[in-house]
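Hi there. Long-time user, first ticket. I'm pasting a complex I've been working with (about 361 residues overall). I'd like to know whether the download I got is complete or cut off, because the file seemed smaller than I expected. Thanks.
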Amino acid sequence: MTDRGVVAIALAIVAVPLVIALTDPHLSGASTALVVSTATGAIAAGALGLQPLLAAGRRIARHQLLGAIVLALVLVHVGALVIESPGDAWFAMSPDGPTRARMALIATIALVLAVALGVLRGRLRWHPTTWRALHAYLAVVVIALGLGHALLTDGALDGAGTAVLVALMALGLLGVPAAHLARARLRR
Amino acid sequence: MRRVTSLAIVLSLVTAGIVALLLDSEVSGTGAENVGESGPEHTDASRTCEATDSNPGGTNNYIPDAPARTSLGSGFVITGQVRAVDGCAPLEGVRVQVWLATETGGERDNRASVRTGPDGRYRIETDPTIPQFGEPNIHVGYDDGDYGEVFIRRVVDLDDERAVVNLTLARRD
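Hi, the file is complete. Here it is re-exported in full:
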């Protein structure tokens, strides 16, 4: 597939949750901060479903770029929630916060580590198997808990949004072994 | 082979840790039980004569001395009975503060003080609460000095018509 084709399909997949979220009545009358936090979360959800497929398709440069974008989106998502309501945001991230927030917190830590592994790949003198296993493990944690967080969250991605989130989670989780199989075939 | 084994052990332990962290949390946050109801209102509140505990997050967005109001909109009701720990008697004239996010504004904008009637009950109608932080939640607080302060955060479902929050207050010495 051409690079332009890959980018077009990627944008189309990312657009689905974003359009559903932005047109949901939940956001009517919402503050700018809440709209930004919802939009960044929705784009990140779509991107997470895509990430392993880019790796499976050996589009490594795109995969690295999207990884950095997802991390930035997550940071803006959290920052916007802190602006919306600092008390609620810090409470959510505290040990007394709800399960969905704890899932997000763990997913964010795993995302930072996955991106760090990507950045440090050349410098870490690890065995390639070790690096790949850890990166894949972190990817599974990010996709399962990041999209799980979105599923448990009431808001702009209920209804049709729920179906899209489940599909993205399946796409992402199946993409991880697909990337490994693609790599194994390449080496043969 | 040793590399694979040690990786498997490490990742199993990490997974166990993640699962433990998730199981340790409460779905809606610590102590935030679901108090939503629908259908006809009833008054057979479960009588609890033990002091109501504040729960974490109870003071989120609290601003002291909410204005006395009879309504914050329509479509949803926050109600409950206030009793004293001592004798479990209903308390009349106690000021209860409520605050919640609705379509017309956030928790810092939608706040009201209501007083309990002769039967110890308070009731205020509001616009339905919306899930700004992932789940519709409401706050009820008492902070007037005669009794120990109580700040609670509870959740409801999106299609609930009512939140029932009963308080049992302990007199301050």
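A couple of notes from our side: The radius of gyration of chain A is 17 Å. Chain A has a mean pLDDT of 94.
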